[in-house]
Amino acid sequence: MPNGQKFVEVSDLVRVFATPEGEVRALDGLSFDVRHGEFLSIVGPSGCGKSTLAMLIAGLMRPSSGLVALGGRTVDRPQTNLGIVFQNAVLLAWRSALDNVLLQVEMRGLDARQYRHRAMDLLASVGLEGFERRLPHELSGGMKQRVAICRALIHDPPLLLMDEPFGALDALSRDQMTLDIQGICARGGKTVLFITHSITEAVFLSGRVIVMTPRPGRIDGIFDVELPRPRRLAVREDPAFAGYTRQIRDRFMAHGVLRDIEDPSPLAPLGGFPSPLASPRGCGSPLAPPSPPGGEGAAGA
Ligand SMILES: Nc1ncnc2c1ncn2[C@@H]1O[C@H](COP(=O)(O)OP(=O)(O)O)[C@@H](O)[C@H]1O
Ligand SMILES: [Mg+2]
Predict the structure, then answer these.
(1) Is 29 helix (H, G, I), strand (E, B) or coil?
(2) What is the pLDDT of residues 113-166, one digit of tens each?
(3) Is the Cβ atom of 214 under 6 angstroms away from ligand 1?
């Protein structure tokens, strides 16, 4: 399929969950496309329906109404033609890194021996050369997530779906993974749908960023990121980059997902160190001024 054609089509997608407390409307009329070869990110606050969207696209859940199509075909069952990476790597504890990658081909009834080379190459491409025989408990969180990415790519799917894949990693590992994902996806010519709540990661990786509203999830805005590729980490200090992150942040501000401080004057001093004698049972917080009974000290919604 030539680049630029619609690959993923989401139209008027609605998903409602029945719960004991009543209906939860997770997604409310979502429509967008992902073009072949595109790297598209979806950014939104927790609970806005991002994971629900991923499940619907993968065919692991049915929509309440609306449609998802992949390559022109309506998704009505679990899809095998894509790779998925979730927030937690979920590796089998008793299988080596290599065998965890090969699990994917075994589950598809393919001959794992034919994929060994590719699995080794993939592991090397994410810096895991020499770790192929290690068990998951011998790997760091970032390494496990790399194994999970290789597992998602072993059958060379055209579409990669990533649902907060770096969510459990420390900041430096996230930076490295962001760079690695950029390289892997560009080399493999993948179409990528990347779900995150990191504005910076979304802008860094994407050609387009979709911003979602708080629940029920709707599209709040779509931003084209026109920065040359490949992108180095230093692009994040570029004024153009800051312009994109600001535009997206402003959308979250508009919905109250983010609230900046109101008074930019220096914060009032806290009044020095409290005497331990001032709080006899040691339970009063020196940081919180006493609130008048029934007064404004109560946390607002
Ligand atoms: N299986 C389910 N049953 C009931 N409610 C659900 C279910 N899955 C998700 N939800 C609700 O739908 C909303 C969206 O969830 P989710 O897609 O996980 O959001 P996100 O990934 O953006 O944090 C949340 O309010 C969540 O509690
Ligand atoms: Mg989620």
Answers:
(1) strand
(2) 999 999 999 999 888 999 999 999 999 988 999 999 999 999 999 999 999 999
(3) no
